[in-house]
Amino acid sequence: MTPNRVALVTGAAGGLGTAIAAGLAMAGFRLALLDRATLPPAHPAFDLPESDRMAETVDIADVRAVGDAVGRLAAGLGEPAVLVNAAGLGPPFVDPGIFERPVDLTAVDADRWRRLFDVNVAGAFHAARAVAGPMIARGWGRIVNVTTNLDSMLRPGVASYGASKAALEALSAAWAAELAGTGVTVNVVIPGGPADTPMVPDLPALDRASLVPAAAMAPPVAWLCSAAADAVTGRRLVASGWVDPPAGAAAETVGSPIGWPQLAGTDRTVPMAGAFDRPVRVSGS
After folding, report:
1. Tell me: the pLDDT tens digits for 178-200?
2. How many angstroms separate the CA atoms of 248 and 251, rounded?
């Protein structure tokens, strides 16, 4: 059972973050919200009393600012039991016309490349690091990271975005293993295709009705944050077409494994040396 029904959602000012926050509010969570943009004082998607909702305006790429903001949110609402890393910069950040004129290695602006990784990868790390210790101490917690589908990770012309999401995917798999047995789970949720958010611009041939609604993200995230998912960690859920698993479903039947486990053992020609194969030290254990 969730010991403290506070959910921290990054990127909450719009897009997938807003939809996920709305779903968690409907599931009975109080909301601790982070975004670089100023969140509106009220939003119909998560209309909660002021006592059940707090927001901090912060650059998720700034580790000290994130730590301070999470501390203030925890002081006001209680330590988060749930973290959803939905903050992210999309391909148009690299170039507004990137979907019509893909940008190759030689044309990517180095500062924008770095900023995209600072938000999409380092930002998720900063938030997770800020909340994981108290979660471990309580013996219950949920970390949910928003990544993307494999073909987007490997798509030429938008490689900076894809690589950042692949990095977060790898981090998620490692964190799930590191936190195994602590009561803190780590899972990934993806839309299952281009999502109907401002990250996908209007294009001449695009029918926005064909995009995955942002609200589709809410049900799988809410399910992961329920007692039904206590044993589910290291899994990747696809929001489009999601149906809650039946009660008692085995963890290994939910979604698919995070990352690329089919490659395990296929590319190692030298055994792992014993010095590198030791238990991971988890703070508080």
Report:
1. 999 999 999 999 998 888 788 78
2. 9
Distance CA 179, CA 39 (A): 32
DSSP string, the chain: --SS-EEEEESTTSHHHHHHHHHHHHTT-EEEEEESSPPPS--GGG---GGGEEEEE--TT-HHHHHHHHHHHHHHH---SEEEE-----HHHH-TTTTTS---TTTS-HHHHHHHHIIIIIHHHHHHHHHHHHHHHHT-EEEEEE---HHHHT-TT-HHHHHHHHHHHHHHHHHHHHTTTTTEEEEEEE-SS-BSSTTS---TT--GGGSBPGGGGHHHHHHHTSGGGTT--SEEEE-TT--PPPTT--GGGSSEESS-GGGTTTS--SPPPGGG--PPP-TT-
Strand partners, 56: 34
CA dihedral 59, 65, 69, 75 (to 10 degrees): 170
Write the pLDDT tens digit of every residue in 198-216: 878 778 787 888 888 999 9
Residue given tokens 């010991």 in the structure block: 3
User: Hey, which residues does 187 pair with through a beta bridge?
Assistant: 144
Half-sphere exposure of 44 (CA within 13 A, CB side): 0
What's the CA gap between 59 and 63, in Å, rounded?
Answer: 9
Q: Which residues is 9 bridged to in the sheet? A: 33, 84
**Residues taking part in catalysis:** 161
Rounded to the nearest 5 degrees, what angle is found at the Cα of 87, between the Cα atoms of 84 and 89? Answer: 150
- Supply the pTM of this predicted model: 0.93
Quote the CA–CA distance of 155 and 153 in Å, as a whole number.
6
